[in-house]
């Protein structure tokens, strides 16, 4: 390791530094240079007997980098604050940088040959700055849009979804081994979910052991907003409920521990601080990766093969799309095609064709996804959010779809045809870039050529946009590099000109504010009364909102005698009426405050606040 850190010789470290000097520049940990009091430099590579050197207080020894030294890590292009962050070094063999997978997201880094830069702060003040401002856990939340810029990714994200499925059970030996990966384990082993015939623990229990002590509710990727399903303990298991760190229901996936606002990572950082968030992210990866190594997971070619019925459905949908395209072509050639408002005949024709082709791809894609079982390996990665999308599944199994260049179907080249293999003036699907085959079946030569045309356009756009956006950003940086916040709360440039009287016009820390929705903001008077007025004469008093018995009746959460006493209490009636009147006044005040946001936002029921009111009330209820 040739990177050095200057250390001043003091009575407290002189013995340690003597040993480093004795080790020399070739043995780690050692030292490279000594700087005397007169600033003259001794290069230890050329000193024969290093034991002859007598260190004195006040000299500086430039020692090798060691474990837990603070370093700065950067990847170009540096487009935001999180492109350079502080890390603690871990010295390993070989000449490659290694870093946690979750940190690759803000760097936009992957492992296909990326180059990164490592800087070693050379003074105590620089190290203090890096430690208090630039360390990775302190920058988990981005001020750009108030969400966590780091989350669980790749195999850990895939594993945590499968681990928290409702039907996952863990044997005693495996559960105890997994607990050994929890650095904050307090020695308490939870009771097994199943005792007989042998003790079994659930994956949810294992997740609860590493979850921070927070109250949380969220929705998984497979959640469906069905008004008929009101019970959070429904068969979909898609509503995530965590009470004081215990996962009660729900499947943990990208929505819950990924890089999205309102995730567990985000809430933990806001409520428990960056240290607790760091521990959570470290432990979830360690425990889940251990569990996955024992359970195993692999994707094979069989995961991409649909059954015979699905293949027939796909072919039938494509044949139906071909027939529709032929009908549209016949109408256009006979002058019977209806022109769309403000469009020419050819534009109307192309829009009709695109609508048919998009519908066909959507239909065959849904058919392909429906054919895959829940335990399909590719579908598992998509549902977890760790890799791929539904479009990828449909292109692998069903059909690749229409290829576009400059937002339109493939245009004619020479002699009014796209390729020599097609007739002149052919407006059909195949000749204008529709790829009927899937990646599994393989593309024909013509389809492969059209597919390459679309891919080349993407490469060109990427190269051009990179240069343009880079230069735009540079100009913005040069224009605003002298603007800074002053002690009088104003933002001024180097000449003292005021840019803003208050940072962001509200003076709030962008890392701390959250977008919040007030449902009652746009309620009608009758809906507001239905939601918030408690009518003691109603039959619904004391009843749950979901069915709790086999008789399909709503259950009671209050005893009938208690309900009767409430109905006969005039003081309680008066208090409830006063509360409702206060809620009405509060809503009027809320509307008057939110009306100041500017034209066009009057109907928007959401706003940004530094305190999450909904979560505050929910935590108090818990």
TrEMBL record:
State whether keyword Protein transport applies.
no
SUPFAM superfamilies, per the entry: beta and beta-prime subunits of DNA dependent RNA-polymerase (SSF64484)
GO terms in the biological process aspect are: DNA-templated transcription
Record-linked Pfam families: RNA_pol_Rpb1_2 (PF00623), RNA_pol_Rpb1_3 (PF04983), RNA_pol_Rpb1_4 (PF05000), RNA_pol_Rpb1_5 (PF04998)
Q: Which UniProt keywords apply?
A: DNA-directed RNA polymerase, Magnesium, Metal-binding, Nucleotidyltransferase, Nucleus, Transcription, Transferase, Zinc
Per UniProt, subcellular location reads as: Nucleus
Keyword Metal-binding listed? The answer is yes
Principal place of residence: nucleus
What EC number(s) does this enzyme carry?
2.7.7.6
Q: Which InterPro entries is this protein grouped with?
A: DNA-dir_RpoC_beta_prime, RNA_pol_asu, RNA_pol_N, RNA_pol_Rpb1_3, RNA_pol_Rpb1_3_sf, RNA_pol_Rpb1_4, RNA_pol_Rpb1_5, Rpb1_funnel_sf
List the GO cellular component terms.
Answer: RNA polymerase II, core complex
Record-annotated RNA polymerase N-terminal domain positions: 1-164
Report the enzyme's class at the first EC level. Answer: transferase
MF terms from GO for this chain are: DNA binding; DNA-directed RNA polymerase activity; metal ion binding
Q: Which protein family is it in?
A: Belongs to the RNA polymerase beta' chain family.
What protein name is recorded for this chain? DNA-directed RNA polymerase
């Amino acid at each position: 390791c040739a990177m050095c850190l200057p250390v001043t010789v003091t009575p407290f470290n002189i013995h340690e530094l003597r040993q480093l000097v004795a080790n020399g520049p070739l043995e780690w940990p050692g030292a490279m240079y000594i700087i005397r009091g007169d600033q003259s430099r001794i290069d230890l590579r050329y000193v024969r007997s290093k034991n002859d050197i007598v260190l004195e207080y006040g000299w500086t020894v430039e020692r090798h980098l060691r474990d837990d030294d603070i370093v700065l890590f950067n990847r170009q292009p540096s487009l935001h604050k999180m492109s350079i962050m502080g890390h603690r070094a871990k010295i390993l063999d070989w000449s490659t940088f290694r870093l946690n997978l979750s940190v690759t997201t803000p760097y936009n880094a992957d492992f296909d040959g990326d180059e990164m830069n490592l800087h070693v702060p050379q003074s105590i003040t620089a190290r203090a700055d890096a430690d208090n401002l630039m360390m990775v856990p302190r920058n988990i939340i981005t001020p750009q849009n108030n969400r966590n810029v780091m989350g669980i990714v790749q195999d850990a994200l895939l594993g945590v979804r499968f681990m928290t499925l409702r039907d996952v059970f863990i044997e005693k030996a495996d559960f105890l081994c997994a607990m050994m990966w929890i650095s904050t384990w307090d020695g308490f082993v939870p009771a097994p979910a199943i005792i007989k015939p042998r003790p079994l623990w659930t994956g949810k229990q294992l997740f609860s052991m590493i979850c921070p002590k927070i109250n949380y509710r969220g929705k998984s990727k497979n959640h469906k907003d069905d008004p008929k399903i009101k019970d959070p303990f429904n068969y979909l298991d898609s509503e995530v409920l965590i009470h004081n760190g215990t996962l009660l229901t729900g499947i943990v996936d990208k929505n819950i521990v990924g890089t999205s606002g309102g995730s567990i990572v985000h809430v933990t950082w806001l409520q428990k601080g960056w240290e607790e968030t760091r521990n959570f992210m470290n432990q979830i990866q360690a425990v889940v990766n251990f569990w996955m190594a024992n359970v195993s997971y692999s994707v094979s070619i069989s995961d991409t093969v649909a059954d015979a019925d699905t293949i027939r459905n796909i072919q039938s949908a494509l044949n139906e799309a071909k027939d529709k395209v032929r009908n549209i072509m016949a109408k256009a050639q006979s002058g019977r095609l209806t022109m769309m408002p403000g469009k020419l005949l050819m534009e109307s024709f192309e829009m009709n064709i695109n609508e048919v082709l998009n519908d066909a791809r959507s239909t065959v894609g849904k058919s392909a996804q429906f054919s895959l079982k829940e335990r399909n390996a590719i579908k598992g990665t998509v549902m977890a959010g760790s890799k791929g999308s539904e479009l990828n599944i449909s292109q692998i199994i069903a059909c690749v779809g229409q290829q576009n260049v400059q937002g339109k179907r493939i245009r004619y080249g020479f002699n009014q045809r796209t390729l020599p293999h097609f007739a002149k003036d052919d407006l059909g699907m195949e000749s204008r870039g529709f790829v009927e085959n899937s990646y599994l079946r393989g593309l024909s030569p013509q389809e492969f050529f059209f597919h390459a045309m679309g891919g080349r356009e993407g490469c060109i756009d990427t190269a051009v946009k990179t240069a343009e956006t880079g230069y735009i950003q540079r100009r913005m940086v040069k224009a605003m590099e002298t603007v800074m916040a002053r002690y009088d709360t104003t933002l001024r440039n180097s000449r003292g000109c005021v840019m803003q009287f208050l940072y962001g016009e509200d003076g709030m820390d962008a890392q701390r504010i959250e977008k919040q929705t007030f449902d009652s903001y746009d309620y009608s008077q009758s809906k507001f009364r239905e939601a918030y007025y408690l009518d003691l004469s109603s039959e619904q008093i004391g009843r749950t909102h979901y069915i709790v018995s086999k008789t399909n009746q709503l259950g009671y959460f209050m005893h009938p005698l208690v309900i009767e006493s409430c109905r006969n209490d005039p003081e309680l009636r008066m208090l409830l009426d006063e509360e409702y009147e206060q809620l009405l006044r509060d809503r009027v005040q809320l509307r008057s405050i939110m009306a100041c946001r500017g034209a066009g936002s009057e109907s928007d029921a959401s706003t940004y606040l530094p305190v999450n009111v909904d979560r505050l009330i929910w935590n108090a209820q818990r």
